[in-house]
Specification:
Elements: E1 5-12, H1 20-36, H2 40-45, E2 46-53, E3 57-65, H3 82-96, E4 113-118, H4 131-138, E5 143-149, H5 157-165, E6 169-174
Parallel strand pairs: 1-2, 1-4, 4-5, 5-6
Antiparallel strand pairs: 2-3
């Protein structure tokens, strides 16, 4: 079995994401998958997972080969509960990522890539409760990037996501948000 490069998307699907933003997310994901399918390295090693969060979190695409992934249409509903999203992300990574095995002399998956996308502040839950677990897990990742659609009232949320990704990652503010930006 080839080593996999797990890529996890954690996407805010709260009500503030409805309309043009949710359309941009759906179109952007499809465009990304199409580009990855044209890359021979991504075809061989790339595996995607999509976890959505609003009032609750769910994994809507289990870790699947870029070639075989089928994207559902994502819809916005509920309130922003980043704690639920991060908790689900940690659970999925724990269950799905194959670690190296010294005893069996086998290499596991490559270090994962995590992409977080949101547009607004926490309205439910409290991610501070799990921040140490998040930072410990993100330290084992190849790359962690949080994208924040920062229009209007959500500018302050950028600093929260910078704190969440911690020293292992980066937060990028998107003042304009469309499918290409995603």
């Amino acid at each position: 079995m080839n080593r996999r490069l797990p890529i996890y998307f954690l996407i805010d699907v709260s009500r503030s994401m409805s309309g043009d933003r949710m359309t941009a997310v759906n179109e952007g994901l499809q465009s990304l998958v199409n580009k990855l399918r044209k890359d021979p390295v991504a075809l061989e090693t790339g595996y995607l997972s999509i976890i959505t969060f609003s009032t609750e979190a769910q994994q809507i695409v289990q870790l699947t080969s870029v070639l075989k992934v089928q994207l559902p249409t994502i819809k916005a509903i509920g309130w922003t509960n980043l704690e639920a999203g991060l908790t689900k992300l940690l659970e999925c990574m724990e269950e799905e990522i194959i670690p190296n095995s010294i005893e069996m002399e086998t290499k596991g998956d490559y270090k994962p890539i995590v992409v977080i996308f949101s547009d607004g502040g926490q309205s439910r839950g409290d991610w501070h409760n799990i921040i140490e677990k998040v930072h410990a897990r993100f330290a084992k990742c190849q790359n962690v990037t949080a994208f924040v659609a920062t229009g209007g009232q959500y500018r302050s949320y950028f600093n929260e996501l910078k704190e969440i990704v911690g020293p292992s990652g980066q937060a990028i503010a998107l003042d304009d948000f469309d499918a290409e930006a995603f």
